[in-house]
Design goal:
Structural class: mainly alpha
Strand content: under 5%
Largest sheet: none
Number of strands: 0
Order of helices and strands: HHHHHHHHHHH
Radius of gyration: 18 Å
Distance between the termini: 44 Å
C-alpha cells in the first residue's frame, strides 16, 4: 500500500481530515504524485474548492500522472471552463484512459450542447475499432431518433 493510501485508510476514513490533508500536502511537497492526485480529488469532491483541485491535479499531471488528465476535467467543468475540460479529456483519450471517451461525450452532449461534435468524435473513435465508442454512438443516435443510423453500425 502506498503512503498516500495509508493516509487515506489511517487518517481520512477515520475522520481526521485535517491531519490527512496536512500529511498528503507534505508527501506532495516531496514529489509524491499519488498524494497530489489524492489532494486534487479531495478538494474537488469533498471540499468543493475547484481551483485548489485544479492546482493539485495540474501538479500531478506535470509530475507525469496520466489519470489526472481525466480527473482534472471535473473541477474544470464545475467552474465552466469547458474548453480546458475538453482539452484535458482529449489528452486523456490519447493516453487511453478508460473513462475519457464517456467524459468527453458527456461534455459535448450536456455542457456544450454539441451533439454533432459528439457524433463526429464518436464516429472517429468507432472507426478506429473502439467498441465503447460504437455503444455510445448507438445511444446518441437512439436519443436523437436516428434508429436507422444506429442499426447500420
Amino acid at each position: 500500500m502506498s503512503k498516500a493510501d495509508e493516509i487515506h485508510e489511517e487518517l481520512y476514513l477515520r475522520g481526521h481530515e485535517n491531519e490527512a490533508l496536512a500529511a498528503w500536502q507534505k508527501l506532495a511537497a516531496e514529489g509524491d504524485v499519488e498524494a497530489m492526485s489524492m489532494l486534487g480529488a479531495i478538494y474537488w469532491e469533498e471540499l468543493g474548492d475547484y481551483s485548489e483541485s485544479i492546482r493539485w491535479f495540474g501538479n500531478a499531471i506535470s509530475a507525469g500522472d496520466l489519470d489526472s488528465r481525466y480527473w482534472i476535467s471535473f473541477p474544470l467543468i464545475e467552474l465552466g471552463q469547458f474548453e480546458d475540460a475538453e482539452s484535458a479529456l482529449l489528452s486523456a483519450v490519447d493516453t487511453k484512459h478508460p473513462e475519457a471517451i464517456i467524459g468527453l461525450t458527456n461534455l459535448y452532449r450536456n455542457q456544450l450542447r454539441a451533439a454533432d461534435q459528439a457524433e463526429r468524435f464518436l464516429l472517429n473513435q468507432a472507426n478506429s475499432g473502439l467498441l465503447r465508442a460504437k455503444v455510445l454512438l448507438v445511444d446518441l443516435y437512439l436519443e436523437q431518433n436516428k434508429s436507422e443510423l444506429a442499426r447500420n453500425l
